[in-house]
Design a protein that fits this description.
single chain, Rossmann fold, 7-stranded mixed β-sheet, elongated, alpha+beta, 3 domains, about 30% helix
Length: about 725
């Protein structure tokens, strides 16, 4: 047991699952953890079976067994112990609901290697996986959170989500007095199919987990935990003395079906498949049911919503995406949708999201019970996902697909959540195939890895060593920048003083920043946009592999003054200019007031044939104006060309080096049109690209011939000139 002590001490109670931080309970004493005496390779979850002689066992023995299982599960109003066990030398905790699901809830035949089963009976019960573990953690987290009306999870096909939700509903309702559990799906038939799976699981439970019901062995419309319809004897009356008066049912797909009906656990299944032609408003349906989970402001239950996603235009994908956006807890994402988030923040003062649901995306490579066709299963014997193998397999499956076929495959087996919103009809302003390929490639990158000079994005902050003269960079998990490359030490903070006494960036020829700024703390209608700044390395004939590579990302909402100073720090550190959208002059003024105006990229207002960095200051305009159709068109064309040349799978078989997924996702979502309000990253990046296209002046150097004396030959004589 001593070999287990380090793993016991290293058990992490705080878990990050999607957007949410989950806190697990304290582990029990070592001697109370299951499988502690088994060899490491024999430590894995094993079901506890109902004794074969159950019907003939002494009553006290049956009660002892049942009470043990009830202690794990937890009775009404109590927290169950859950199940602690060693799993290949790793300490695991199954939540009470997860244990109930894996140990007692019968489902369809599980497709896993036969050597994974410890008993033939297990083939019809859920296999322990890390993915199911995390979902149950999240479900309990949402159930206990007073400012959460439910969990909205997006998952891949055949991942067991319907069985999981049905079991969770039953587990809660079947031990609670006066509780109701309802179900809706994309249509009436599918709602019944979910209910039917609950009935199947209920029928196969041990007797001590089946509360008294009305006596219908094959419920068609509802499972009712109430007094039986017929009581034959007085003694039988005592058996049914404790009646729950609870039930589980299903309804049609209409928005108002559950209006006014209190819900402990309501299942909203396949909400991303509600076809447009039905006229069903998903957001309204969710609003109605959420209200059923709160009585007089007090939380009484939750929604468990889940889906795979169908085609965006006709089959519900758009409504699912709208709900997904409204369920975010991330401020940076919220600010992209000012029409939804009035204050630019994801949560209101009470801690609710706009939808009152919290969300979770489960990528298809996590808990994927499949194999590569060569005998390698994508989940190991202990239930841990082989994510890299599964991811590579899923990407390979896409290689020979295209068009609507590829789009459908991405939606069914998404690797990133953006796959779910892939439409058969392409409306994006840019090449979505290249962008999606790049996103897939980025998913394969390992945090901390490097590719030559380029590194996996690192969060951090720039800081002043000497104000306006010298800056430094420090990694910081809460930093405002994402960085993939820093210049060598000899090229940091390089500048020179010109004949007019101005400080100039000395590395203009190596890269450039673009900036979409803001000047006000709050914009019109109280909406908040982000400042967006990107740094891009210019084309280098001696190092083409690092040419036109974005290396810094700054997407941040802070005070305007802090943002101006941040941009100054990065410019001084890199020795680069910044091309700012100049209709918001605050940043330009900050640079001028601090003697950094030569770090401002500028354009010629009238004479395009003249050198753009006019040393006489005539016709010089700081920044770039995007007020005209021509300028906006040039920006759009520049970004479009960049995506085509440098994003996704390139002609030489390698992938592009744009590692900033925030930018890529924004480019993917962007449609043709004049409204760029939500596309700060696009503007900031486009301005950097425009700046990289500008001619950079170099200090004139004497030609080689001028270093030697010149002679004129006249006959037999030579004369020095």
């Amino acid at each position: 047991m001593s070999v287990l002590i380090p793993a016991y001490k290293d058990f992490k109670q705080e878990r990050q699952i999607g957007e949410h931080t989950i806190l697990l309970p304290d582990p029990p004493d070592l001697n109370k953890i299951h499988y502690r005496d088994l060899p490491k390779d024999q430590q894995f979850f094993r079901r506890t079976y109902l004794p074969n002689n159950w019907s003939t066992m002494p009553k006290d023995d049956r009660n002892e067994f049942a009470n043990w299982q009830w202690d794990i599960r937890g009775r009404e109003g109590e927290k169950g112990e859950g199940f602690w066990f060693w799993n290949n030398g790793k300490l695991e905790w199954m939540s009470p609901n997860h244990y109930f699901y894996c140990n007692w809830w019968r489902i369809g035949k599980v497709q896993i290697p036969k050597e994974y089963f410890s008993d033939a009976r297990d083939v019809y019960y859920p296999f322990f996986t890390d993915a199911d573990r995390d979902w149950h953690y999240l479900a309990d987290y949402c159930f206990d959170d007073p400012s959460c009306g439910g969990l909205f999870s997006i998952e891949f096909r055949r991942g067991g989500k319907t069985y999981r939700m049905g079991c969770y509903q039953y587990e809660k309702v079947s031990k609670t007095h006066d509780a109701k559990g309802g179900t809706q799906s994309r249509n009436d038939t599918d709602s019944y199919n979910v209910f039917e799976k609950v009935i199947f699981g209920w029928r196969n439970l041990p007797p001590f987990f089946k509360p008294t019901d009305i006596g219908n062995s094959n419920p068609v419309t509802s499972l009712v935990f109430d007094e039986p319809k017929k009581i034959n004897t007085k003694s039988a009356q005592k058996v049914y003395s404790d009646i729950l008066h609870s039930w589980i049912d299903y309804g049609n797909a209409k928005e108002g079906y559950y209006d006014g009906k209190e819900q402990l656990v309501n299942i909203q299944d396949e909400i991303g498949k509600i076809e447009q032609k039905t006229g069903i408003d998903l957001l309204e349906r969710i609003r109605v049911v959420v209200e059923c989970c709160y009585i007089m402001g007090k939380k009484v239950g939750i929604i468990l919503a889940s889906t795979t996603v169908e085609e965006m235009e006709k089959k519900g994908g758009k409504q699912a995406k709208d709900l997904w956006i409204r369920s975010t807890t991330i401020d940076n994402e919220a600010r992209r949708y000012p029409e939804i988030f009035a204050k630019g923040t994801a949560l209101n003062q009470s801690g609710f999201t706009v939808s009152k649901l919290k969300r979770y995306f489960r990528p298809s490579y996590y808990g994927y019970l499949g194999d590569d066709g060569k005998g390698t299963f994508f989940v190991d014997r202990y239930g841990y996902s082989r994510t890299e193998l599964a991811k590579a397999h899923l990407i390979a499956e896409r290689e020979n697909r295209q068009g609507a076929d590829l789009a459908a495959l991405k939606r069914k087996f998404p690797i990133v959540v953006e796959d779910c919103w892939t439409s058969d009809i392409k409306k994006s302003a840019f090449d979505t195939t290249r962008i999606e390929d790049q996103l897939m490639h980025n998913e394969m990158l390992i945090p901390g890895s490097s590719n030559g000079e380029l590194h996996y994005p690192v969060k951090g902050n720039f800081y002043w060593i000497e104000k306006n003269k010298e800056a430094g960079f420090a990694p910081d998990d809460n930093g405002r920048w994402m960085i993939t490359w820093l210049p060598p030490h000899k090229d940091r903070n390089r500048h020179y003083i010109d004949e007019d006494g101005y400080q100039n960036p000395a590395c203009r020829d190596t890269g450039c920043f673009g900036l979409d700024p803001y000047d006000h703390r709050v914009t019109a209608y109280n909406n908040k946009s982000d400042a967006a700044s990107y740094g891009v390395r210019k084309y280098d004939v001696l190092n083409p592999s690092m040419s036109m590579v974005p290396v810094t990302e700054y997407l941040c909402r802070t005070t305007p003054e802090t943002m101006y100073d941040d941009i100054a720090k990065q410019c001084v550190f890199f020795g680069w200019e910044v091309f700012a959208e100049n209709q918001k002059p605050g940043c330009v003024n900050h640079f001028i007031m601090n003697g950094l105006d030569r770090y401002l990229g500028n354009t010629i207002a009238e004479r395009e044939d003249e050198y753009w960095h006019d040393e006489t200051k005539k016709n010089r305009t700081y920044g770039i104006s995007l007020s005209g159709t021509e300028a906006r068109g040039q920006l759009m064309e520049t970004v479009e060309s960049y995506v085509y040349r440098y994003v996704g799978k390139l002609e030489n078989g390698t992938f592009g080096k744009c590692y900033f997924n925030n930018l890529l996702n924004q480019l993917k979502d962007m449609e043709h049109g004049d409204d760029w309000t939500k596309y700060d990253a696009f503007v900031g990046f486009g301005l950097a690209l425009l700046g990289c296209k500008r001619f950079t002046p170099k200090e004139e150097k004497p030609q080689l011939i001028d270093m030697f004396p010149k002679y004129r030959i006249d006959g037999h004589q030579s004369y020095r000139i």
